[in-house]
Design brief:
With 393 residues, the protein is an alpha/beta fold. The chain has helices at residues 8-32, 41-54, 112-129, 150-156, 214-232, 270-291, 310-324, 340-344, 375-391, and strands at residues 57-62, 66-72, 75-85, 134-142, 165-176, 180-182, 185-186, 190-199, 203-204, 239-248, 254-255, 258-267, 294-300, 307-308, 328-330, 349-357. It folds into two domains: 8-188 and 305-391, 3-Layer(aba) Sandwich (Aminopeptidase); 190-300, Alpha-Beta Plaits, CATH 3.30.70.360. The strands form four sheets. The chain has an eight-stranded mixed β-sheet with strand order 1-2-4-3-5-16-6-15, sandwiched between helices. The protein is elongated, with a radius of gyration of 24 Å.
Length: 393
């Protein structure tokens, strides 16, 4: 029976070093031509062309603009899915780089171009090792992560059928390039939305007693909503209730007949999620009764929290240690959303954080000036390729 060679570390390092310049060139090409959610036609074409060049079997048009590559090992075994996102953000780039976005109002400000090319590199390395693998690697190039919709559409078209476990990655500019971050348990937050419409009675601003003022009711409501986190949610749990938009009135001397609030709830635990939803509805009922408004509440549950499987986390850390040494550190969880959570809800899964900070910079993602260190591509390839090879050894 063929075994993974003892010099696997050297083999992965050599294969990664050989392809790294091409991966950086591909990344710069994708970066210069960003595409928003479900617009990733050109990006998907770049991915498909590179998979063809590498001799990797693939299908395009999955989940609208997604691409799925398949690497089959020499022996039967489990199916390991590795997912990368491809979409950009509606941001005007201000980096001044030679390969900056050529599309006004669109930018790869979250590093999905990094993720896409990293997964291409992982595919290139694992394709070389395929004769020594037991099982199958499914490379998932996903659209529309920022719109929180691409994973759902790819799953609906069968991308997770037969999958036994899954990996993903995200670059982090808070982590030094060459190091990695790991988060135990819930790594991101559930992303819920709410809309509240307060219906009052319009009237002259000089005679508020003859009207029912929804703006005053909204002001009290916003303050009361903040007590959900401080008094309804367990202190050890993470939860945020944010009102991000208010719409009411058109004139300074007219009390309008309605006021609309739009907001989001982020939570890492289901108990906190339940407390926030019930708290919003209860407080709205109280405001309606106390201030004579009618309060309509729409609460929509979005992505669940991304749950990192502990066994997958430990296998990844062990693989990184074997390939690169003791370079994986504990990292704080995020209250951002991530639709890889849908895949992680189906099989044991882990999302690895790959350090991408450039020396002397303090960048953040979703920023017009974001400039990740491109060396993180090679580090991502080494970590994920080694993890996949060890899992399918």
């Amino acid at each position: 029976m063929t075994q993974i060679p003892n010099d696997l570390r050297a083999a992965i390092d050599a294969a990664t070093a050989a392809i790294e310049p091409r991966l950086i060139a591909l990344r710069r090409d994708i970066h210069a031509h960003p595409e928003l959610a479900f617009e990733e036609v050109r990006t998907a074409g770049v991915v498909a062309a590179e998979l063809s060049r590498l001799g990797i079997e693939h299908r395009a048009g999955i989940g609208r603009t997604g691409v799925v590559g398949t690497i089959r090992g020499a022996r039967p075994g489990p199916i390991l899915a590795i997912r990368a996102d491809m979409d950009a953000l509606p941001i005007q780039e201000q980096t001044g780089l030679a390969y900056a976005s050529t599309i006004d109002g669109k930018m790869h400000a979250c590093g999905h171009d990094i993720h896409t090319t990293t997964l291409l590199g992982v595919g290139a390395v694992l394709q070389q090792l395929s004769g020594q693998l037991a099982g199958t690697v499914r490379l998932i190039f996903q659209p529309a992560e920022e719109a929180i919709g691409g994973a759902r559409e790819m799953i609906a078209e069968g991308v997770m059928e037969g999958v036994d476990m899954a990996l993903s990655l995200h670059n982090r500019p808070e982590i030094a390039v060459g190091r990695y971050g790991i988060v135990h348990g819930p790594a991101t937050a559930a992303t819920d939305e709410f809309d509240i419409v307060l219906h009052g009675k319009s009237g002259h601003g000089a005679r508020p007693y003859a009207a029912i003022d929804p703006i005053v009711a909204a002001a009290q409501l916003i303050g009361q909503l903040q007590t959900i986190v401080s008094r309804d949610v367990r202190a050890l749990d993470a939860c945020v209730v944010t009102v991000g938009a208010i719409h009411a009135g058109q004139a300074r001397n007219v009390i309008p007949d309605r006021c609309e609030l739009n907001g989001t709830v982020r939570s890492r635990q289901e108990a906190a999620r339940d407390a926030a939803e019930s708290g919003i509805k209860r407080i709205c009922e109280g405001i309606a009764a106390g201030l004579r408004v009618r309060c309509d509440v729409s609460y929509r549950r979005g992505m669940p929290a991304l749950m990192n499987d502990e066994a997958m986390l430990q296998r990844t850390v062990a693989a990184i240690r074997a390939q690169l040494g003791d370079v994986a550190d504990e990292f704080e969880p995020s209250l951002g959303g991530e639709d890889f959570a849908l895949m992680a809800a189906m099989v044991p899964a882990f999302r690895l954080l790959v350090g991408s900070s450039q020396p002397g910079r303090t960048d953040k993602v979703h920023n017009a000036h974001y400039q990740p260190d491109e060396r993180c591509i090679g580090y991502g390839v080494r970590a994920l390729a080694r993890t996949a090879a060890d899992i399918l050894a």
